[in-house]
TrEMBL record:
UniProt cross-references to Pfam families, sorted A to Z: FtsX, MacB_PCD
Keyword Disulfide bond attributed: no
Keyword NAD belongs to the record: no
Protein name per Swiss-Prot or TrEMBL: ABC transporter permease
Topology versus the membrane: Multi-pass membrane protein
Spans traversing the lipid bilayer: 21-43, 281-300, 325-352, 372-395, 420-440, 669-690, 718-736, 748-770
Keywords: Cell membrane, Membrane, Transmembrane, Transmembrane helix
Primary subcellular site in the record, as a coarse category: membrane
Organism: Pedobacter vanadiisoli
Length: 789
């Protein structure tokens, strides 16, 4: 029986080639879109789950109450790891490490600057990377040692065996290679190219030996003995700050490491989501696109019901049951789904390289993974059954006597259901158009919103080697300005678009004892405001003319406001126990998130704290490439042992918008696919309606109707459906974009433009799609349709 049904299915598909191709094309695009989106969702979902005991790994978070809010960071004191291991029940391992930073590693003539972490031996117990060479039980115990990843070892040593060879760190410390481990997967939250012992970090940075519980400067990882130990351990760790420093009101919590990437947004000390919200959108998008493709199939199958009616009548008359007919129609739809899956597989494979470049990740189809094939098979069967379910039930319900006497489509259930399905398709497409437009409007608004300084032609150069001394930085500044490559040069204690370095240890005259304000603190060099292109509201900036500026401080507008200082200049504030005099007030400028209001900031001179970056304002009258070449030459002259590490500030600032750009780009692409699939359905229905009304159109033409009249006649029903779809989609789209925008402190008002664009695009696309077939019918010779009458 199956063999017979299979032959009938193939014959029907071959007989109706156009409809078969439209169905296969629609299903293939829907399946390919779904596959790519699911691959991306699976990739993001797999973050930090590669380790054998990932469900027992936790990151220690620090909840700090300040400025009327609770701020949550994965920054903790250096003493945290030992304290947790010794005092918290159910703990197997703890580890503390620095956050990844770039350091220079030299071997012979090779100089590589890549990401490194200082950590302890337990780090590789918690995150159990595979060891390619070396003894896992002996690494990171001796001070002058190093562990390399496989690719970094190959870049440094080529085909040589790296074990026991020595390399230099920042041209100072000689380190012996102890081991080589597998490369860190791209979907790991902690990225590094090599590891070095924590004891080496303490040797290089003596302040790191201080067990001060107010200095949150490292990442602490914890592995529990079993998952059941979590509740007791988390409860016990809550008051760990207060137990070790009575005046420290911070609270600690254990946060699952395998949720860290997806649930990193905190509010009032609790995780409220993060990237998981974006994944939910993509997951919904994947299945909605697939559902639209299934709706196409339903629409076209029921539209062809008159041609299949007699077949159903004859088969029922000779004894076929309804169940066997349902099986026949479902087999046809599953067969179409199989063909569509083959095409979809090819489309997905071809498009992956493009999406990998777009997303800056490496999505691959895992041919040797049974889970992938299981999901693909389930997706294919699901698509076939869903797409064929309604047509099978509808077509198998025909009564033999009625259809054999003469079948006429009633203006009833099937017609209205087809209209509902078309409306559903365009509702989704219109929602995507509105949402994508709003995403791009919000992104452009934030990117173009004044940030308080001029990021154009501003370059930041990492401070390395000789540049760590103030005299060499001053020499660099003089030479850069003298060369004509730069107009102004200053320094900054961080990358200008980086966060971090916050404190509540600030007091001032008239401060309310209950106020616990969180300040951003930064070290800046001379001519800072001129270099970055911001303004001083009052007072002056730091200058070599004032040697006492080591005891001075500059505030930003937000700081003056929260401190409620009417005359800030001359005010003496206390910062970390040191008296500092306010000599200037700087205009607010964006340092951390461009989406949130500027935090209170205080600036002290770089001569107190050192600098991490040199800021250079390029000379606008000199060619940029010439200026950069001159800058590199001068920097290399002062510090020849390090490669020049420079970057445009505008590029760093652009990185803040990656998530929104990704959301907008994917919505744009897959929204386009959804519209295209919907248009395929409209085209199929237009083919059917034109065929059904061929004689009517011919008679109208004989009676004098023009081509324009015929086009209006054929298009108006479809335009009505698209108009209804817009009316349904608009409130849905408004709710969605309003909820999305509510997450931003700075947001655009929802204007009429996205909705106007949506209705214009959807109507134009529908008219063009339907008119492709309508023009052909309207221009046909009436004789061809009426010659048999």
């Amino acid at each position: 029986m199956f063999k017979l049904n299979f032959k009938i299915a193939l014959r029907n598909l071959w007989k109706n080639k156009v409809f078969s191709l439209i169905n296969i094309g629609g299903l293939a695009i829907g399946l390919a879109s779904c596959m790519v989106l699911l691959l991306y969702v699976a990739y993001e979902w797999s973050y930090d789950k590669q380790f054998s005991n990932h469900e027992r790994n936790y990151v220690v978070y620090n909840n700090s109450e300040a400025s009327g809010k609770i701020f949550s960071w994965a920054w903790t004191p250096g003493a945290m790891a030992d304290e947790v291991r010794e005092k918290i029940p159910g703990v197997a391992y703890t580890s503390h490490s620095t956050y990844p930073s770039n350091y220079l590693i030299t071997y012979g003539e090779k100089k590589l600057k890549d990401q490194a972490i200082f950590t302890d031996p337990s780090f590789l117990k918690i995150l159990d990377y595979k060891f390619i060479k070396g003894n896992p039980d002996k690494v990171l115990k001796e001070t002058n040692t190093i562990v390399l990843t496989k690719s970094f070892a190959e870049k440094l040593f080529g085909n040589e065996d790296p074990i026991n060879k020595t390399v230099k760190l920042d041209n100072t410390d000689v380190l012996k290679v102890e081991a080589v481990i597998e490369d860190v997967p791209a979907n790991n939250s902690i990225q590094f190219d090599y590891l070095m012992p924590w004891s080496l970090f303490e040797k290089r940075e003596p302040w790191a030996r201080d067990k001060n519980w107010g200095n949150n400067m490292c990442l602490t990882l914890v592995q529990l003995q079993n998952t059941n130990a979590y509740n007791k351990a988390n409860e016990a760790i809550t008051g760990i700050y207060t137990r070790n420093q009575k005046d420290n009101g911070n609270k600690a919590l254990l946060f699952p490491m395998d949720k860290w990437h997806l649930y990193s947004d905190f509010e009032n000390g609790k995780s409220i989501g993060g990237k998981i919200d974006q994944l939910r959108i993509f997951l919904m998008l994947a299945f909605c696109i697939l559902l639209i493709a299934c709706v196409n199939f339903m629409n076209l199958s029921t539209a062809r019901s008159e041609k299949r009616a007699k077949e159903v009548g004859v088969r029922k008359a000779i004894g076929s049951s309804r169940q066997s007919l349902i099986a026949q129609f479902l087999l046809e739809s599953v067969l179409l789904a199989v063909m569509a899956t083959v095409v979809a597989f090819a489309l997905a494979e071809i498009s992956l390289s493009y999406f990998n470049n777009l997303l800056n990740i490496n999505l691959v189809i895992a041919y040797n993974d049974w889970k992938f094939w299981t999901v693909l098979f389930a997706l294919m069967v699901f698509t076939g059954l869903v797409a064929g379910s309604y047509p099978a039930l509808y077509l198998s319900s025909f009564e033999p006597v009625k259809v054999l006497k003469g079948f006429n489509i009633k203006v009833g259930s099937s017609v209205s259901i087809r209209k509902v399905l078309v409306v559903f398709q365009f509702v989704f497409a219109v929602c995507l158009i509105v949402c994508t437009t709003v995403i791009y409007q919000q992104l452009n608004y934030i990117k173009n919103k004044p940030i308080g300084y001029n990021k154009g032609n501003l370059v930041q150069i990492a401070v390395q080697g000789n540049l760590n001394t103030e005299s060499k930085r001053n020499l660099l500044s003089e030479q850069l300005v003298k060369s004509g490559a730069a107009t102004n040069v200053s320094s900054f204690s961080h990358g200008i678009s980086e966060g971090g370095n916050n404190t509540t240890s600030v007091s001032w005259p008239g401060k309310n004892p209950k106020d616990d304000i969180l300040f951003n603190q930064r070290g800046i060099g001379y001519d800072f405001t001129k270099t970055i292109g911001t303004e001083l509201i009052a007072g002056r900036e730091f200058s070599a003319k004032y040697p006492a500026d080591t005891n001075s401080v500059i505030l930003n507008e937000a700081a003056v406001k929260v401190m409620r200082l009417k005359n800030p200049l001359g005010t003496v504030i206390k910062f970390w126990g040191t008296d500092l005099t306010v000599v200037g007030v700087m205009k607010d400028f964006v340092v951390e998130s461009a989406y949130q209001s500027v935090a209170p900031m205080l600036f002290y001179t770089s001569s107190r704290s050192g600098a991490s970056y040199i800021l250079v304002r390029l000379n606008p009258s000199v060619n940029i490439s010439s200026s950069l070449a001159k800058i590199d030459e001068i920097v290399q002259g002062i510090e020849p042992n390090f490669p020049v590490d420079r970057k445009f500030v505008s590029d760093s600032f652009e990185e803040k918008f990656q998530n929104e750009k990704l959301l907008g780009t994917l919505s744009n692409w897959f929204g386009g696919f959804a519209i295209f699939i919907s248009c395929l359905g409209l085209l199929g229905l237009a083919l059917f309606m034109a065929e059904q009304r061929k004689k009517e159109i011919s008679i109208r033409k004989v009676l004098g109707a023009h081509t324009g009249n015929i086009l209006v006649l054929l298009n108006k029903d479809f335009i009505k459906l698209v108009a209804i779809a817009n009316l349904v989609a608009f409130p849905l789209a408004y709710i969605i974009v309003n909820k999305w925008l509510s997450a931003f402190e700075y947001r655009i008002p929802i204007s009429a433009l996205p909705f106007i664009m949506a209705i214009a695009l959807s109507v134009i696309i529908a008219i063009l799609t339907v008119s492709i077939q309508s023009v052909k019918v309207a221009k046909a010779n009436p004789v061809d349709a009426l010659k048999y009458e």
